[in-house]
Amino acid sequence: MAERDKADDIADRALCVEVSPPRALCDDGFRPYERYTLQLPLPDGETLTQRRDILRGGRVAGVLPIDLARDRVVLLRQFRFTAHLANGNGDMIEIVAGRVDGGESEADAARRECVEETGVAPDALVRLYSVLPTPGLTDELVTSFVGFVDSSRVVTHGGLASETEHIETLVVSIDTALDALRSGRIFNALTVSALQWLALNRARLRELNDAAVKAGGVVQG
Fold this sequence. Notes:
Blueprint: E1 18-19, E2 23-26, E3 33-41, E4 47-55, E5 59-67, E6 72-79, H1 81-87, E7 91-94, E8 96-99, H2 106-118, E9 124-131, E10 141-148, E11 157-158, E12 167-173, H3 174-182, H4 189-201, H5 205-215, E13 218-220
Parallel strand pairs: 5-10, 9-13
Antiparallel strand pairs: 1-3, 2-3, 3-4, 5-6, 5-8, 6-7, 6-12, 9-10, 11-12
């Protein structure tokens, strides 16, 4: 039997795929919705034809704001219609997140979104990881950060009226947030992954904050 557990193979990789020009399926939506036809090469030399409809989500920055002095995190509550359809619990617990505008870096977007959604800019940022939350549906690429903040300055409600956002901010202990994670009360993927990172790296927070401040604002976690 051929070897199938080679460690070097456990990584995403590029593939030479023939892609048709996009066909717009919706012209007035919140995001571009497009159809593509793909010619996918197979290991046996054959070609597989696929048709894929995708939502073009683009780059997103997510931030888990943490107050080291008070041992607290800042979470958000925001209504999501898709969650309402999926499980009936549309009023979701989330982290700060939003699109990266043209010309912005992910870190710049992370700072801006923190101000827009919590009223507070992070004193320092730690870049954590980048993920494709739903690659079967959208090309949205999310880069997540921890942002160190003073939670006493967080506003009670955030969001931009121009984007029809209504966001409630929640300042809770780290233990309370991790308990909600463990008990399965949170379904938002960005929130779950950020809190899982926090659970694994809680002991390193002060070290990471000090490194970010020394570096001038952003380090890799």
